[in-house]
Amino acid sequence: MSEPNPIKSAVDKVVDAVTEHGHPPKAEIPGVPNSEPPSLDQPTEPREPLPPKPDQTGPDTFSPTGQPTGADQAAMAQGGAFLTSAQGVRLRDTDHSLKAGPRGPVLLQDFHLREKIMHFDHERIPERVVHARGAAAHGVFRSYGTAANITRAAFLAEGVETPVFVRFSTVLGSRGSADTVRDTRGFATKFYTSEGVYDLVGNNIPVFFIQDGIKFPDVIHAGKPHPDREIPQAQSAHDTFWDFVSLHTEATHHTLWNMSDRGIPRSYRMMEGFGVHTFRLVNAEGATTLVKFHWKPKLGVHSLTWEEAQMISGVDPDYHRRDLADAIEAGAYPQWELGVQVFPDTPDQMFEGIDLLDPTKIVPEELAPVQPIGLMELNRNPSNYFAETEQVAFHAGHLVPGIDVTDDPLLAARLFSYLDTQLTRLGGPNFPQIPINRPHAPVNDMLRDGFHQDAVHRGVAPYKPNSLDGGCPFHAGAGEGAYVEVPAEVAGRKVREAPASYADHFSQARLFWLSMSPVEREHIIDAYTFELGKCYEQAVKERQLRVLANIDPVLCREVAQGLGLPAPEPSEPLAEPMPSRALSQVGREWPGDGRIIGIVADDSCDLASVGAVRQAVLAAGMVPLIIAPKGGMLGTLPVQRTFLTARSVEFDALLLAGAPMPGKDAYGARDAKAGNRLADEVVDPRVVLMVMEVYRHAKAIGGWGTAVRALAQAGVPEQAPGVVVGDDGEGVLRGVMGLMSLHRAWDRFPPAADVA
Description:
11-stranded mixed beta sheet, 15% strand, Class_I_gatase-like, Catalase_AS, peroxidase, metal-binding
């Protein structure tokens, strides 16, 4: 039995209720390809397909019209021990075309060749224009019932459990781009409620670049690769992006969030989510309330350093999707609390002087606290990426009774765009019938035919009114669960204008800057300097410095110095908002569930101590990876990484069980990380490099035995912040775990005095 996680805080009874729901056994070290290990020789004895791994599942089995089928999910997968055609005909050979003799021409009658190539030629569908790069998981949402007084939505009643499917994504990159680029992240949740599908389609940043949806093509065209060369991929560090945002200053607030650590999250599991817009909730009595939705991760909000993100893009471009899948397979199920900021539904839709319809503005949590209304846990990986993660279709207009939209002009465009895009991507209007999109409530929509119609409709009268089908389907009243739009007053002249409140583009950007800790400010300065330094046009850099001058003089001056340009003066008075502690990622303690700890060891180490530390890491709900000079076994311990294959960016902390001598492959011609090894080096240079990288990325380091030699060779002081040296491995691990609860040892590198 696993011991309790020594740094994991207790959770309330609702959290316990969610985590008790029949989870599969966790994998000790996640990531194996299949549910059974392969044989050395090619299998020849026919057998049924292997079952999925315990952490994997497909969509729940509902019919195309939302009726529960009761079928095992395995019935949705292919079966049978023998290869067949798509029509179920068994095939004796799939390696050779049908020919007129061994060297003769291929015959047109080869139906298997034609079918196989035809299907292959059409395997791909158009990727999403934005949010193409994504990862997803199944889970469950359990409502606390605390929102029942402000919404009649059934899934938000007390104790109601709702299946969910969540997709995380980057915005700008193609499907083949890297996970750790600096970008906004999508956070889209599909709730399969008893009243129909509800989609909360948000981002990890609470504001957006634009205030009106008609500008969406512009901001995306500016952020995408330049159309002449199709570069750079998945990046904002180029002229067209900065040309746009420096001219279109309503993008300033979102851009600043992107240049902060929020633009490079450590993990999808450690990322906030926001609904961005203000929504209108309706309770059972018809009273309305305005709200903003927030997802708060139980593991805290953490990020990568910029150097780490760049390194990971080359070392493991699938870093975020691997992290999510591995954590679920290892039993470290990520959790988020759903909360709402609540505002009165006043005629002007303002709150404390903040326009609630402006998607470039936040309401600080000090003014409107986030009130928890439920807990979501992701506990099952998809069994097929294409069928689930790629074909899932979200839409901001998938609403349920009790949740309505507001007049946010960005939201209005989304209500059209999300639906429209599926016609091209998923081949027609019947995309809700794809298994991952099917509602878990009965469907009787009178919609018929079209591409990919999977339902077999009955009746002769798909119209209303009718008598030939007995009048069915009938209209529902509000008391029968019908969706009823809020009868809001609508009046005004037809104009292409924005309200005066939308003209403030800098005060909330300054609020964000003033809310950052000194180390976060340093990272923002570095991000702007890097991104603008990648631009070719001097005018673009100078124009953006004018924007920064209206945020903060220190930010502007430091970026200007890095670019070798003069710092301009602000063009308008600087706002003096009260900082919001909720915007900073630094200063609190968090659980370490699912974190990865590298343990460096070789045959000269005390392997019993290494084994005890490994077990303690597992018992704490984290993943230990042993790093040794070569693969295979280290005594009785399995080796997961070697000095050749390991890189520091994979680990949240590094433990040194000793100071391994240089391995036989520690020379530059074999492994460039080894460099030109000096004759007097007593520690493998790749271990030294790992220690140096972990140290400068402000991660925790622990060592025992002869580890001090490795620290010394890496130039790491034993007394440095975030470094734990001791006589026994388990004592060192306890110290390191305490440091990991803070995420990083940021005090290792003090910021400049004028930035603090």
